[in-house]
Write a structure and sequence with these properties.
Helix content is 21%, strand content 24%. Helix 4 packs parallel to helix 5, helix 5 runs parallel beside helix 6 and helix 8 packs antiparallel against helix 9. The strands form nine sheets. Strands 8, 9, 10, 11, 12, 13 and 24 form a seven-stranded mixed β-sheet that branches. Strands 25-28-29-32-31-30-33 form a seven-stranded antiparallel β-sheet. The protein is built from 16 helices and 35 strands. The chain folds into four domains: 209 residues, 3-Layer(bba) Sandwich (FAD/NAD(P)-binding domain); 181 residues, FAD/NAD(P)-binding domain (3-Layer(bba) Sandwich), CATH 3.50.50.60; 145 residues, no CATH class; 87 residues, Arc Repressor Mutant, subunit A. The chain is of the alpha/beta class and 696 residues long.
Amino acid sequence: MEYRITGHPILPGLTDEWVDFTWRGQKLTARKDEMIASALFANGIRIFGRHPKDHAPQGIFCANGQCAQCLVLADGKPVKACMTPVKAGMAVEPVESLPELPRVASPPHVREIETLEIPVLIIGGGPAGMSAAIQLGQRGIKVLLVDDKNRLGGKLVLQTHRFFGSINAVYAGTRGIDIATRLENEVRQFQSVEIWLDSTALAVFSDHKVGILREGKEYVLIKPQVLLNAAGAREKSLVFKGNTLPGVYGAGAFQTLVNRDLVRAAERLFIVGGGNVGLIAGYHALQAGIEVVGLVEALPECGGYKVHKDKLVRMGVPIYTSHTILSANGKEQVESVTIARIDQNWQPVPGSEKSFACDTVLIAVGLDPVNEFTVKAQEFGMSVLSAGDAEEIAEASAAMFSGKIKGLEIARMLGRFDEPIPEDWYHTAEILKSHPGMISQEWIPASEGGVYPVLHCSQEIPCNPCTSVCSQGLIRIDENDIRKVPVFVGEQLGERCIGCEKCVTICPGLAITLVDYRKDAENPTVLIPFEYSAGKVNVGDMVTALDTAGNVLGEVPVVNVRAIKANDRTILVKLKVPRSIAKRVAGIRVQPPWVSEPLPEVLERLEEDTIVCRCERVTAGEIRALIRKGYIDMNEIKAVTRAGMGACGGKTCTALIQRLFREEGVDSGEVTPNVKRPLFIEVPLGIFAGYKGDEA
């Protein structure tokens, strides 16, 4: 059985070019040049190997090349499945012990490492890096932009939803995947901007050079006058029983499989974390036809935008605030999850446990900046700036504007831009990266005649597309602060909405409906935005109408379904509803209630396998025991347990160990941190000797 998404409401289909490869000698098919990990998932394979220490099953974790959980043997060589494309005839095998390196008949000739001097090096081709490169390219400044993926865009290429922010400043109301294409097309117009894809920054050195692994084959040293770190962020993790089972992974990995590679990465998904990342991933799962069993958030309220939470709730996904995950259950891979309510001291409340059947647990508990390059460059006295998430975690719209400003700041540093950077740019940047603000009571118009929009948007967030597209100028937000809640002013001005539907279509939060009393005042129509496959709702269907909070308002008929090109893949569904509920209808249920029902019995995972260091399989219990013995130097803990000594270089476990110190009552100021590994990822030693490609 193949697990591929053959019809997506937003994404176009992928190439139909196929190649054969083998897994354990069994012949399988893959899309040409798709990553090995995606090809295995598409063929229903989630266990890629076993850890040599305890034979625990290993599967995908980051899908970003920064760990080695997905290690496999491809034609005899150990490679990361998430970063290695399938080739025709490739023989892929699991890694079930320490792999034996292939023998080399005779060492190749050692080559001199090339050093290139350049005015600006930008690490990261996401929204911040591209925006900075555009500003520099407009001024003819020579730039080298490097990114470790096979196309520019960063996380934008995984985002099918419309973006928030300012419609004029950062393409608000446009889908992330389309913003990525726009920015890439713009940056490629400048001859002064050179782009290296599939190329990873490895380290910053004291002689002010940056090591780059170009296209995975060649080691090059770059000496820039100015370095801009726009490498983005990495996901945080959690410690709980079963946290390394195949099927437990981050939102970035999930969105990579689903939205980049159109692989059906799960059948039943459970989400941990109510920030924007987790909420958006849940919505993406529903679009891909994946059941979302539920979401837990430890805080009393989700930290992400309320409109993102509201979308999930009114689609039929329950959200459990003040809850945490206790365990992921299953022998070889995830089969269920157990959660519990927590008290004011963050401790599970006995008797509140629930278990749910699922095959995937998505961890979305925050992000950390990828700031290693910045820290080292500053230590060595280089001219260095950071932009986007590498500087401060915020939304992609903020990253775009951050990169734009940093591009101009670099141009000033190089003497190629003399004017002061506009003060309103900095003001806009601060607004775009601001956290969600106050929640007010949802405003419901008093009128019950004519046609007008109902704005189911009640939280202060930076967003203004609805005001920009209103044909009559009747939706307004504070001109100086787009974080304010939009209001419809037609009633107070005595002017009428013409029902153009533009606000309904463009709203990134799907939070605007259009109520029309003109033909039938007792049973008006309500127009709602719908971003699922057109065939999911049809004229004549009876659907469950829900309010903003997901409360059932009643069963109502669908009287029109319209999918036109001008609406950019947003389908408009018209419902016929009683007047008593018309203004409260915010959406329709997509997922039936039975999907989210808990199992009849609570499952308890008995194994003490709460893993802190995934690479070396070191448990939280082992670390706690050392802390209680008086260990306060993380390097000593590394020496005793090997925690942080694995392939990922401590990217995940360092923060978890620091958390264990806090939980054990040790002040962070008393703890000696790990000595950072100089290299960002693992590299064959031959690469540093000038060997190229397969020679290394």
